[in-house]
Amino acid sequence: MPVQSVGYTQSRIQNNPNKNDGGASLAAYYGSGLVSGAIVSPIPIISSKFIKMGSNLSEETIDTFHKGFEQAVKMTGMDKKGVTIHYLPQTNRGKVQILNFDIIDSIKNGNNACHLSKDFTDATGKIFKKNSILMPEKDLSFAGFHELGHAINNKNFFWNCLQKLRVPGYTMAGLIMMYGAFTNKIEKPQNRELTKLEKAHNFVRDNAGKLTFAAVLPTLAEEAMASIRAQKLANKILDKNLAKQVLKGNALAYTTYALGAVSLAVGSYCAVKIKDIMMSKKK
Length: 283
Ligand SMILES: [Zn+2]
Prior knowledge:
By secondary structure, this protein is mostly helical. The protein has a domain at about 10-55 and about 140-280. The protein contains 11 helices and 5 strands; from the N terminus they run H-H-H-H-E-H-E-E-E-E-H-H-H-H-H-H. The protein has a 3-stranded mixed beta sheet. A two-stranded antiparallel sheet has the order 3-4. The two termini are about 25 Å apart. The structure holds zinc ion. Zinc ion (ZN) binds near residues 150 and 226.
C-alpha cells in the first residue's frame, strides 16, 4: 500500500526517491560513534588518575577529609535537612573498573561516590533513603565535599530542576544523534513551502550539535555548581594543601563530564554531516 499520510512522511519519500538509505544511516551512526569514541578516549586515563589519587592517601589524611566533610554537613545544616552519610565497606580496595554500572559495587571498589536524589534499593534489598551520601569507607575521601555540593543543590529549586534534567538530557542527546543519522534533510518542494513540522525537522538536523550540547548543559552546570560549593567549604574547613586536593579531584572528575558532553555534541554534528554527504553522493 502506498504511503497515504500527508506532510512530513510523504514529502520525505517524494524528496528521496532512493529510499534504500539504510547503509548511509548506519554509516552515519557508526561513523559519528567513532568520532565520539575518539573524543572520550582519554576518560579512562583521567578516571584512573582520579581513582588512584583517591586510593593513595594516608590514614591520617583520610581521617582529616572525613572529619572535615562531616563538619561541612553540619555547618551547612544539611544534617537537619535529612542528609546522611554512609561509608560503605570496601571489599575490593584498589580494583579499578571504569565501566561499572553497579553504583554500590563501584563505591565498594573505591571508584566512585554519590549523592542519592531519591530512595535507592541496592542488589541485596537494602534501602538507602533519598539524600544519602554514599562514600567508600577509605578511598576518595576528598569527594565527600563534592557530593555534599549535590545535596545542597538538591534543596534549591533551580539546581534541583537541573538535577532532574540529567537522565532526560542524556536520553535526548542520544536521540538527537540517532535522529540525524536516520533521517534526511527535507528539500523544499517546487509547488509549496515547507510545513512547520518539516522546518522543525530541518532545524533539529541543522543544529544537532548545538541542541545535543544544550541537552546535557544542565548536568554540566549542576556538576560545576556542586564543585564550587565543595571548594568554598573545603577552603573554609581544610588546610590549603588538602583544599587543593579537593580542587584537583573535582577538576579531574569535571573533565570527564566535559569530554562526554563535547563527544555527544560532535557526534550528533557528524552524524548529520556524514549522512548528508553520503546521500548527496547517491543522488
Ligand atoms: Zn558530581
